[in-house]
Amino acid sequence: MIWAIIGLALGVVVGYYVPFTYPDNYSLYVSVAILAAMDSVFGAIRSSMENTYDNLMFITGFFTNAILAGFLAYLGDRLGVPLYYAPIIVFGGRLFQNFASIRRLIFNKLYSSKKRTMTKELE
Amino acid sequence: MSGNKTKINMLVFMTFLLGIILVLQIKSVSSTHGLVTLKSIQEIEKQIEVEKNEIINLNNLIKQKEDEYKRYEDELDNSGSIVPVLQEQKLMMADISGSTDIKGRGIVVEIRDSDREIKDGENPNNIIVHDQDVLHIINDLKLAGAEALSVNGQRLLFMSEIRCSGPTITINGKTFGQPFVIAATGPLDEMKQAITAPDSYAYLLKSVYGIGIDFFTEESLTIPKYSKTINFKYLKEAQ
Asked: Which positions, given as ranges, span the membrane (chain A) (predicted)?
């Protein structure tokens, strides 16, 4: 969790100084891709807390999800159908699910450690 | 546990990428504020131009003032007083205010009534020189950059009148008949053009009404000083 925040902060700083912007037309695709990438990161945090983390799964998920989401938004634009709703709903919903799981895991950890100390004191 | 370490590395790297994309997106979206019309671009360009000119003018002013200050200081260092500089400035003010004779490159324009015969039923006013004509030509000369002006030896200052008095005109309270001789110092080419350009008033007078307009340039033209004394009765500096 902390590592994720550190990485994010580093990225923000580097991104701020990179002298590169892209045309407004692509902002929709990139925003959907960002959503997918965020979902992947949250998923990775959750799975690492559940001890089911798989490196390959994370990396491939990060990139393919982002690319697919961006591509879908692009395709939607070409076809005249707002296909970008699909990534927004799927990844947005999963983002909240992952976040809820992370919360639950953190609270479980806190409670279990509290219980342990309480039982220790009782003993 | 090497797996744990690569896990952390990977997570940091991926979130790093995410951060970069995130900020790029924010920058790209916020750098464009919707549609920009050609008109607004032109207006902004104009504004920039005006501001740039303003900056140049202010810088020039700063430089001018610094030079002035330096002159005072130099004079103070050299001779211990700034009186010579002030005297020099006083002379310059005298030149500007018309209380000294001016000598310099200039143009002399002579305006006389037309020699041609009046056509049947034509208004005789068409062939004589009026105060308006003189005024208009003087204005054209001023526009061309004339710095000191005189008409028939009368220095033109800010309150010099050019008034119609029958077939004559009155300048600085003195009345003159034609021809009227305008002398002006300033940029020769521009002043010449102000008299000869096909769009100019002098050209119109000459070609349409046949008024006699002659001019010649002179390397050292003397423009006399203002002959009367100036007494201000109502002039007061604003508080």
From this structure: 25-44, 56-76, 82-106
Please tell me which of A112-116, B63-67, B94-98 the model is most confident about, judged by mean pLDDT.
B63-67
Alpha-carbon gap, residue A29 to A66, rounded angstroms = 9
pLDDT tens for B97-107 read 888 888 888 89
Select from B51, B232, B209, B184 the least CA-distant residue to B130: B209
Q: Across residues B193-208, what is the average pLDDT?
A: 86
Which residues of A fall within a CB distance of 8 Å from B7? 48, 53, 55
- Which pTM was predicted? 0.47
Whole-angstrom Cα distance, residue A32 to residue A74?
Answer: 10
Q: Are B189 and B180 in contact (CB under 8 A)?
A: no
Q: Determine contact: B13 vs chain A, CB below 8 A.
A: yes
Question: Cβ–Cβ contacts within 10 Å for residue A110, how many?
Answer: 10
CB atoms B14 and A58 under 8 Å: yes
For A50-68, the pLDDT digits (tens) are 888 888 888 888 899 999 9
Q: Do A20 and B32 touch (CB under 8 A)?
A: no
Measured CA distances, A70 to A21, A80, A110, B189, B198 (Å): 17, 15, 38, 68, 68
Q: If DSSP codes are grouped into helix, strand and coil, which group holds residue B120?
A: coil
